[in-house]
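Weekly modeling sync, notes
Attendees: S.R. (lead), two postdocs, one rotation student

Agenda item 3: backlog of single-chain predictions. S.R. asked that every request posted to the team notebook include the full sequence so nobody has to chase files. The rotation student volunteered to paste the first one in as an example of the format we agreed on. Action items at the bottom.

Example entry:
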Amino acid sequence: MFPLYCLVRSLVRSLDGRRSAISASVAAAFLLLALLGPASKSLESREAPRYTGRVNDYASRLSEDSELILEHISFRHEKKYGDRIILLTVDSLKDVDAEDFSRKVLESWKLAGPEAKKESVVLVLVAVLEKQVRIHTTEAAREFLHPNEASSILGKSVLPELKKGLYSVGLFLAFEEISGSMSAEHEKRKRRESGPEAESAEDPADSQKSSSQEPSAKPAADEKNEP
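Predicted structure, as returned to the notebook:
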């Protein structure tokens, strides 16, 4: 009887040891999940948001009236020239490069990349936490909006308003000046394609620039800025 008791006691001790090991393993697993949890959430938050239209204000910086005005500017320009001007505001980029994120967003929205046609798209990206603003253009749009011109628009018109917290004003100026600059380039191309007589006609926008007494500032090379 005594040897049987010793055997049972030995088995119980063995099971208790295994339970401790299992408990330790489970605790370690929970600790690892707790540490990786924020990282996984961060990765998810960096995914391209769902495309809702010409104005995607995920950072909630615009009023409904401001959104309608921007949508109208974009629609009017696309109807006449074919370029699409889009806005995306986000709370944070979550340590992702603005250029990479812009490219990823347009590819996710099927507006750029191998799955898309040769779309002419301009994306205005605003990251509130990082205080970054970027005008990102597809290859087709770059023919009508040079990166230096985009940088000039941001530096002279958009950023001063965003620094004041006037997002509606700053983004209105962004859409208006992007549309105006691209429209001028489209009209120049139309005149060139129409023949020498039309090409020699003076562009009203160029005439206005030449008549101005104010010297133009040299635009920066990069179109990404911080307010």
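Discussion: group reviewed the output briefly. The beta strands are 55-57, 84-90, 121-127, 132-137, 224-225.
Action items: rotation student to repeat for the remaining queue; S.R. to check formatting next week.
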